[in-house]
Amino acid sequence: MKEKRTRVNGRWIPVSDKGEKSYPQNQNRLKIKKGQEPWRDDLENARDLSRGEIESYGFLLAWFENWRLAQKEAPTMDSARKFWRAQVVTKKREDWQLKRWAEAFRGYERWLSFCEKNEKSALSLEERVQAAVWQVGARRGLALATRRTYERWVMRYSSWAGSAQAMLKTETATAWLTHLVQVDQLAYSTQKQALNAVVFFLREVCGQEEIELAVRLKKTKRRQPTVLSFGEILKIVAKLEGRYRTMAELQYGSGLRVSELASLRVKDVDFERRMMTIRGGKGDRDRTTVLPATLLPMLEEAKSLARGMWEKDREASRPGVALSPSLERKMPKAGERWEWFWLFPSLAESVDPDSGIQRRHHLHPNAYGQAVTRAAREAGIEKRVTSHCLRHSFATHLLENGTDMRTLQELLGHEDVKTTEIYTHVAQDVGGTGVKSPLDRLVERC
């Protein structure tokens, strides 16, 4: 089954089945738990409504609330009218249903008016928490991925706590983190993510100075990485087309993380010296890595496609690509220059969550990752394959070929060599894997 493709500058390049995602969009989709909607208590305590009316109104408003959050609409009557046109009247309804649901929205309008007069927020607790973490994180200069991670964890925490007052108590935070450790049994690194997110929320967002969380994180064993053989990599690559194939070969040939691969800029690829510079990798560290000579023709083609998109953007006077805030201040026009353009740009524009500017971002890592996973499935690979497996395979194969641990650590961008040492457990003829099974020796003697 061939991938869907789209035509750009006279050439066909693949996109995912659901269309190529633009980047970056906020991926933390909200869904409020039943009973925690901001209007729920007022509706349940209404004295002028029967129990049947309360249940009917609650059903409609919960339906509207989840639609509103999915569409990123504000809690207003304009949003309610859009919902009515998009969800309610698109199907044949009974007259009594339409009448009761119209009454529900009239009550919702009165509730919105009450909130406005009494300076009460009509947003859900999850929405307020999400907006606060995002704004403070942006002000503190946190990376986009870090902000999204903190958002996701603090939203889960708010759902657990149930109220803003409960969220501020260290006892609630301790109970939630203990639940994650003991009941959900998350990995140690995931536990630390949740802990850091809660501390950031209490300290930076809520302004608490002294935070004592009496929770003990539980260390878990590091899992062995999935490594692909040369034959399996060839099978996967054969199922990919266009720039997805180029990206897969580049990730395996250079050992890049998927975020580093997607965000490569033209200036960071040195064709003559056959080197790449990774800017702002994990831990905001820069490093250099190898550029496979066999990929130069494919990268030239990718560069040509990117050049065509850049020229169209310049002809249309579109905003330049995103830069870090410090670079934006120092070189305000750098984002419009060719050398700063993405090597793998997105086909569609999207809104920058920091500046609110609609511009062209790089290819969404999920679109590429889904293509690799789909290709592995079609190739019949009987392993759990993600795009990160190509990075694992790069490290393992280099180790098997005699690359020393220090060099490998530099190429991968690991802060601690202990992280790199995990590949000694999966590399053939390195460490314990070099032992020959006694059964094989027995068969050879016979």
Structure description:
The chain has 446 residues and is mainly alpha-helical. It folds into three domains: 40-117, no CATH class; 126-205, Tyrosine recombinase, N-terminal domain (DNA polymerase, domain 1), CATH 1.10.150.130; 230-425, Intergrase catalytic core (hpI Integrase, Chain A, Orthogonal Bundle), CATH 1.10.443.10. 51% of the residues lie in helices and 7% in strands. The protein has helices spanning 40-44, 51-70, 77-88, 95-117, 125-139, 144-161, 164-167, 170-182, 188-205, 230-238, 242-254, 258-262, 296-315, 325-330, 365-378, 388-400, 405-412, 417-420, 438-445, and strands at residues 5-8, 11-14, 269-270, 275-278, 287-290, 345-351, 358-362. Strands 3-4-5 form a three-stranded antiparallel beta sheet. A two-stranded antiparallel sheet has the order 1-2. A two-stranded antiparallel ribbon has the order 6-7. Strand 3 (269-270) and strand 4 (275-278) form a beta hairpin. Helix 10 crosses helix 15 and helix 11 (242-254) packs across helix 16 (388-400). The longest helix has 23 residues, at 95-117. Residues 22-27 have low confidence and may be disordered.
Low-pLDDT parts are 22-27
Strand order of the largest sheet: 3-4-5
By CATH, the superfamily of the largest domain comes out as Intergrase catalytic core
The separation of the N and C termini measures: 47 Å
CATH fold annotation of the largest domain:
hpI Integrase, Chain A
- Number of self-contained structural domains: 3
Please indicate the percent range of residues in DSSP E strands (runs of 2 or more). 5-15%
Give the oligomer, counting copies of the same chain as homo and different chains as hetero.
single chain
| CATH architecture tag of the largest domain | Orthogonal Bundle
Largest sheet: 3 strands, antiparallel
Order of helices and strands: EEHHHHHHHHHHHHEEEHHEEHHHHH
